[in-house]
Small ribosomal subunit protein mS29 (Acyrthosiphon pisum), 203 residues
Amino acid sequence: MRAYRRLCGYATAAVKQETQYQIPTAARTEKKNPVDHDSQDVSKFYTIDPKTVSNIFQTGGLPKPFTEQTNMFAETALMIRQPALEVINSLKSTDFQKPAVRYLLYGQTGSGKSLSLAHILHYAYSSKFILYHIPYVPIWLKYDRKEVNWSSSKNGMADIPLIAAQWLKHFVHQNGALLNELNLTTVKIMFGVNEKLHPKELH
């Protein structure tokens, strides 16, 4: 009897230990389109398909540690945060004929600002917004860049042609499909020495 009780005690301890160290299952939502996300999805994860990740974030926009995790787990899953939903809901009801509305995401380092912005970018991409996305502004002047051309007409202003070229590639990569769908055309206008063209003349 004593041996039986001891065996039962070991079994109970093993069950408690297994329960204690059991890895919790992350809550997920089946809504993969951020247009459909609402307050019921807050704190849940959703998965972005690899093609969309490549279209939006191939040239920047996701923190390096997060990118390493996505490579390790072979999926890109974002948490749906309340601040991102607030911006998305505001964009849905914005009157774009009026002056632009500006948003500021703030918080401590590691609180999810970059990934909230990634969620908002995914919404804008899915809703066919033209993305004017600058992944990381400080890198423009963070290093001793030899290609900086200082302006001769405006004191303190500079042009960074290589960075500008890289950003244009980033812009085209993110918006290429939509630009092709819009079927935009360009017009080459030749100017003389004393010629000026008022912007209204282009309409």
About this structure: Strands lie at 45-48, 76-79, 149-150, 158-159. The CA atoms of residues 15 and 21 lie 10 Å apart. Confidence is low (pLDDT under 50) at residues 10-19, 199-203. The two ends are 95 Å apart (CA to CA).
